[in-house]
Input
Amino acid sequence: MHHLETRALSAEYAGNKVLNDVSFTVNKGAIVSLIGPSGSGKSTILRVLSGLLPPVGGEVLLHGKPVDYHNRADVKAVRNVLTIVFQQFNLFQNMTALQNVTVAPVKIRKRDRREVEAEAVELLKKVGLGDKLGSYPDQMSGGQQQRVAIARALALKPEILLLDEVTSALDPELVHEVLDTIRLLASEGMTMLTVSHEMGFVREVSSKVLFLDGGCIVEAGPPSQIFDNALEARTRQFLGKVLHR
Output
């Protein structure tokens, strides 16, 4: 049984179809990367999966069980399994790094504060921010803030982490900090679905790569196929542009 599966998934924005019959599977511990031009539907997939945009067709299955995104209980259950990290950090500016990581487990999940704080300290150490527990967002670099955002997502104990272009808002010299954190999570077997323009990173860590264009999956396969022996001309055209800039 797949950890996550979509079948003919479709979605619309303002009456315009932005996903069209998207089907793929994610196995436990896999890293599936979504690549493609801007507007191809990559981030939309993550928004649909996390319940931010209800699908208009098809279905999503978690552990083989269909999800009803029009049912509040189902959406809540999905968000106990999937946690999304956006390209903008969305940290609370009036809270320290430690407070940003602990607020959701304490306030939303109603967990014991002392237990959550102990876990949060370990998570912040894990992402290389053990010395920033008491720092506020405006006292940290963009890379540090994004790592706090990842630690905040991990504090919810997700089974699957959704990463939506988490390095695109960073200065180039800070990108490696966040990618190293994702590499660490990959080495620990975290199931991840990523949207990224960092092609070298995608090639390095992915179990499977999906190339999207026009709201459809044009080609899917292991990195060796997509980057070295793409079957579709559109895939080769896209990679020819982004790999030789």
